[in-house]
Each structure stands twice: as structure tokens, then as C-alpha cells.
Design brief:
By secondary structure, this protein is α/β, with parallel strands linked by helices. It has 29 helices and 16 strands.
């Protein structure tokens, strides 16, 4: 037990970037429980918000990460029931709400959170994660103990002897660039899933509870009026933005110049006309896509808000990729995570602890290329399967260096698949047969029989057959692409700078409303996010609303051939691959050669291979120590 307490302190130190303002420990030797917390002070910055927070009788203890936006209403209600508050924090509201309502309080919460409540009277630990998974939580459980943390690096420090790789999860990271479902790179280390709660007694999980399900699992009952729905879209987003601006410290916003972030800022300035906005100038061309910066400046000028710009050159970004993998905890192969870090760091240097983000707009209203590909399927999906297979085969031979040919190949990749498998395939970056050829015999033998897309198929299985393919795709985006990828990297990289990111598009009322909108008003007349664009016409210029779509990404395909080439050659060298024993050097080097020739679009897969090796060096070879905090300080 003494050793575990030392591990708890070290684990808490490994998360100190998440809460640089305060830290605390709670130890109950008799019950053999320890809780640690690092605090980012946002609501009630006084000592009354200190955590772990104990009830008046000290029988219930809470550690909480996130924000409860409706805490003032809940606080007033609790006061009317006789509760007395020492301070003004949402943490104290959460604790007292549990004392009043128990675990059913989850249905009352409007916010982003992961928390754990130790109830000594019930001898039970109650742990929950918010509906969409904005705030992360990892756990490890066996017959002897249960351990959890907001970051995997801290959890590994709590149980340093458990470092067995999960090959199926690695297989998924490589296929999707992230891992759908509860898996992590380590066997028996799991993510608490969005909208999930667990109850732990005597170190063992006794019960699981999916306390929130996306509206796609419920019948659409709302009658739809186009004109009314356009105005309601704007009003729902406005209410969400205004509610999420609650803060006792300065608050700012991301502003890329895209529709989603611009819409957030347009409504935020109604409460704070001088809200500071932040964007990035990467000094690079993003694989032929339009530059965001001129649009960000245009929006800032139109809304008359200050815009701070951080400039980062390609050399700086490529040098930070190894640090990125350590901070992300998982080998998420998306260098766009660095954009979040640099903007968050600039905000923090300017005294901003909270940033509003436009994340989630595409996942609610359409906007990704996969949505357009699905939309255009009506022109060819009716073809006999034999012809679809031929289309798939022919387009797979197109030169992948050409962006248009690459996208055509992606459209028809999986054309021979049907149903939910076909939808899940849109998230894959490489054919599984090509992926399996990269593995050593030991890796292949360890995979078992479970399908790579099984978490997505299991998720979609209960849906009524009347649910459209577009609604199914959006549900996959909301549950997996958000919960297992975008929200994870946004949280990890912003919190690395001591900044909390809030996501107004993921307000539960807005999600419910968006789900009631028919497909034809989300993607209409070849225009994605049609209803959101119509809703924002009174607030933003048309040349911003209807600008060409661009992502938040970076030109990885170019980097693989230039800036990243020396690092790729080192990390994926024959010696390095042989030492790790996961991938065949000959097959990996052939993949590099085929990618160079344009036979296959494998830049992101190569980067994923690099991320996995970097992850293994950091989390297995060096077993994560507090020295990493200085080693990987940005």
C-alpha cells in the first residue's frame, strides 16, 4: 500500500499540466483508497474549490474534471432544499447534487466532465464520463485493484507492472488512425466510453451503466418546418454558446475562419464584444487546400473582435511530433493536434484559461468528405455488385499522388460492401489486406478473429432499419470520430497548456434538435451543413459561410517526403523494426516505396507506424517517469 501511495503522488505530478493552479490528495488507509487531483481553477478560484472535495460529514469524496454549465440553477435548487454551501464552485454543486439524488443526478447535468465519487457508506466508487466524451478517463481493473486517471501516462504510473500490448487495438489505430471503442494500446487498459458510468466495489467493477444514448436510437417525433428550423438552429446554438461562457477567469475562442468557429464567435461576442480570438499561421500550403488565415482575419474584422495569431514554421512542427505522441497518450496519427497546442499555449500566455471551439459542427450537420461520398452514392450504388467490384478494383489503381484520383479511389473503396460494414469502411485509411501484410507472424497470430470495425458494427446494430445511412454515418461520427479521436486530441493538447476547451455544438439540446432535422436539409443541393449555413446568413458574410471547405490539418503527405523523411528513416529502420518485433521491415519499406511512386496513398499509415513506435519508446521502454515532463516541455 505504501508503494501505491507513492505511485499516486507521481501519477498526480504527471498530470500537473492539466491543473497547474492547485493539487491535492485524499487517502483512506482503512478502505484502501486514494484519490489525487490537479486543479485548473475556472469557477470559484478560491480555496473553497479545492479537490479532492469532501462532504461535511467526510463520508463522500469527489474528484472532478470539467465544467457544469447549469451549476447556478442547480445550486439555487439545492439551497431551497436546505443545502448550505461554503463556496461558489460547480464542484461543490456536483458533490451536493450526488448527496441529494445519487447517481440519477447524471441526467440533470449540462456540461463536460469525468468524475469519481467515493461513497464510504456504500463502500463504492462511482465514476462517470460526459455524454459525448469531451473529458477523457482511462481505467485498469483486475481482481486486486481498480485504478483510473484522466491521462494514460498517469494510469501507467499507478500500475507500472502492467505493460502488455493490445494487438487488436494497434491494428485499429493503424486502420483508422485512432482506436474506435474502449481499447487502448495496452491490454486491460480501457477508456471509459462517452455517456458511460461504472460502479466499483472492493476494487472490482460491479455494474456498468450507459446513462446517455445518442438521439438516433430514439424515434424522430418532431414535426419539421424548414423556415422555423433555420431560425431554431441559430437559437439553439446561441443558447449553447451563451451558457458555456460561464467562467470566473478570462475566456477566448478559436477562430479558423471556417463556418463553425465563426458561428461560435458571432454569438459569443453578443455577451463579450471584445472576446479575444486565436488562430494559427503555419506558413505552409495544406495539400492544395485554401489557406484559413485570410478568412480568420475577414471574420475578425466583420465581427470587430481582436485576433491573435501564432506563427509556426514546418521545422518547428515536425520537431514537435514526438512530443505530441507522448502528450496524446495514444498513437493518434493526426498532426493537426499540434494546431490545438500552439493556439492554446498562445491563449494561456495572454491570460486566457478557457477557449470556445467550433468542434462538432460537421458531426451534427454534415461537412466531411465521407458525407458527400455517401450523398453521391445514389448515382452508382444501384449497380450490380459485380460492376461495383470492378469499379473498386479499377479505381484502386489510380495514381494516388493526384488529389482528385486519390479521392475517386476513396469513394469506390469498399463499393462491394453493403450495410453497416460499408459505412464503417469510410473511416478506414487502408485496406485490411494491405495492413495485415505489414505484420510479423507474432503480431498476426495475436489478433484473433474479431473484426476490425466490430465496435462500430455493435454500436449500429440496435438501430431501426428505417434509420437512414446518413443518420447512421453521423452517429458514427458523433460516437467514434469525436469521442475516440477529435475530442481526445483537443483535450490532451489544450490541457498540456493549461487551457480548457468547450464545445458549444455538443450541447445536448442542440444535438437532440439537429437529430430531428431531415437529411435533405443537412446536405442539400450538393451543399453540406445547408441548414446551419442558412441559419448563419444574418450574422456572417456569404463568402465566409460558403467558402471552400478546408480542414484543421497539416500537409502530412508532403512532410513524409521532405521534412519528416529523416525521422521516418530512423524510426522505421530495419534495426528499429526488428527490435520492436511488430512489423516486417521488408513490407514496411515496400510500402514506403509504393507510397513514393503513388501506387498507394499510405502517408498517414506510415505516420501511424511511426507514432506506434514513438509511443512504445515512451510508454514501454522508458516506463513513463516524471522526468518526461521536462523532457517534453513545449
Amino acid at each position: 500500500w505504501g508503494g501505491e501511495l507513492g505511485n499516486l503522488r507521481h501519477a498526480n505530478d504527471l498530470q500537473s499540466h492539466r491543473g497547474p493552479d492547485d493539487k491535492g490528495l485524499y487517502i483512506d488507509h482503512l478502505s484502501r483508497i486514494g484519490l489525487g487531483h490537479s486543479r485548473l481553477s475556472i469557477i470559484d478560484t478560491s480555496s473553497f474549490g479545492h479537490q479532492p472535495m469532501k462532504s461535511k460529514d467526510e463520508k463522500v469524496v469527489l474528484v472532478f474534471n470539467g465544467e457544469i454549465y447549469n451549476y447556478k440553477r442547480l445550486r439555487a435548487e439545492l439551497i431551497s432544499k436546505g443545502f448550505v454551501f461554503r463556496g461558489d464552485s460547480d464542484t461543490e454543486v456536483l458533490l451536493n447534487l450526488y448527496l441529494y439524488e445519487g447517481e440519477s443526478m447524471l441526467q440533470r447535468l449540462e456540461g463536460i466532465f469525468s468524475f469519481a465519487i467515493w461513497d464510504s457508506q456504500k463502500n463504492r466508487l462511482f465514476i462517470a464520463r460526459d455524454a459525448l466524451g469531451v473529458k477523457p478517463l482511462y481505467y485498469r481493473s483486475n481482481d486486486n485493484y481498480f485504478a483510473f486517471a484522466s491521462e494514460l501516462k498517469a494510469l501507467i504510473k499507478l500500475v507500472p507492472e502492467e505493460t502488455e500490448l493490445d494487438f487488436l487495438s494497434l491494428h485499429r489505430y493503424l486502420s483508422f488512425l485512432w482506436c474506435p471503442g474502449a481499447g487502448t494500446p495496452l491490454k486491460s487498459f480501457f477508456k471509459l466510453q462517452p455517456g458511460e458510468a461504472i460502479f466499483v466495489n472492493e476494487g472490482c467493477i460491479q455494474k456498468r451503466w450507459i446513462w446517455y444514448q445518442l438521439p438516433v436510437f430514439r424515434k424522430k417525433t418532431k414535426k419539421f418546418n424548414k423556415t422555423h428550423a433555420i431560425s431554431e438552429t441559430a437559437e439553439h446554438l446561441r443558447r449553447s454558446v451563451h451558457q458555456q461562457m460561464v467562467s470566473d477567469v478570462p475566456l477566448g475562442a478559436f477562430l479558423s475562419g471556417g463556418l463553425d468557429s465563426s458561428a461560435i464567435v458571432a454569438f459569443a461576442r453578443e455577451l463579450n464584444p471584445d472576446i479575444r480570438c486565436f488562430t494559427i499561421d503555419t506558413l505552409i500550403q495544406k495539400d492544395g487546400m485554401p489557406d484559413d488565415l485570410p478568412y480568420a482575419r475577414k471574420v475578425a474584422q466583420h465581427l470587430d473582435v481582436p485576433l491573435d495569431i501564432v506563427q509556426v514554421d514546418p521545422a518547428h512542427m515536425t520537431n514537435d511530433l514526438e512530443k505530441m505522441v507522448f502528450q496524446l497518450d495514444e498513437p493518434l496519427a493526426d498532426p493537426a493536434a499540434l494546431n490545438v497546442l500552439y493556439i492554446s499555449r498562445l491563449a494561456r500566455e495572454n491570460g486566457i484559461k478557457v477557449l470556445l471551439s467550433g468542434l462538432g459542427g460537421d458531426d451534427l450537420f454534415t461537412g466531411y468528405r465521407s458525407h458527400f461520398a455517401l450523398y453521391y452514392e445514389k448515382y452508382w450504388r444501384f449497380l450490380p455488385i459485380g460492376i461495383r467490384k470492378k469499379l473498386e478494383e479499377l479505381t484502386s489503381r489510380l495514381n494516388q499522388r493526384n488529389p482528385l484520383k486519390r479521392r475517386i479511389g476513396k469513394i469506390f473503396d469498399g463499393a462491394s460492401l453493403d450495410g453497416n460494414k460499408h459505412l464503417a469502411n469510410y473511416f478506414s485509411w487502408i485496406r485490411e489486406s494491405n495492413l495485415l501484410s505489414l505484420y510479423t507472424k507474432d503480431f498476426s497470430n495475436a489478433l484473433g478473429q474479431e473484426l476490425i470495425e466490430q465496435p462500430m458494427l455493435d454500436f449500429l446494430k440496435p438501430l431501426n432499419t428505417s434509420v437512414s445511412d446518413m443518420d447512421r454515418m453521423l452517429a458514427l461520427d458523433q460516437r467514434f470520430f469525436l469521442g475516440d479521436h477529435n475530442l481526445i486530441y483537443t483535450d490532451k493538447m489544450s490541457m498540456a497548456a493549461g487551457v480548457e476547451v468547450r464545445v458549444p455544438f455538443l450541447d445536448l439540446e442542440l444535438i437532440e434538435f439537429a437529430a430531428s432535422i431531415p437529411d435533405e436539409y443537412k446536405l442539400r443541393n450538393h451543399t453540406g451543413k445547408w441548414i446551419l449555413k442558412k441559419a448563419m446568413e444574418p450574422y456572417l458574410p456569404d463568402n465566409v459561410i460558403y467558402r471552400p471547405k478546408t480542414g484543421f490539418g497539416l500537409p502530412l503527405r508532403g512532410w513524409i517526403n521532405k521534412e519528416l523523411r529523416p525521422l521516418l528513416s530512423d524510426i522505421l529502420s530495419t534495426d528499429s523494426l526488428n527490435r520492436r518485433g511488430l512489423f516486417s521491415p521488408q513490407a514496411v519499406h515496400q510500402l514506403i516505396a509504393d507510397n513514393d511512386k503513388g501506387k498507394i496513398d499510405a502517408s498517414f499509415i506510415l505516420f501511424s507506424l511511426m507514432c506506434i513506435e514513438i509511443w512504445c519508446r515512451n510508454f514501454l521502454d522508458d516506463n513513463v517517469s516524471t522526468s518526461f515532463l521536462s523532457k517534453y516541455k513545449y
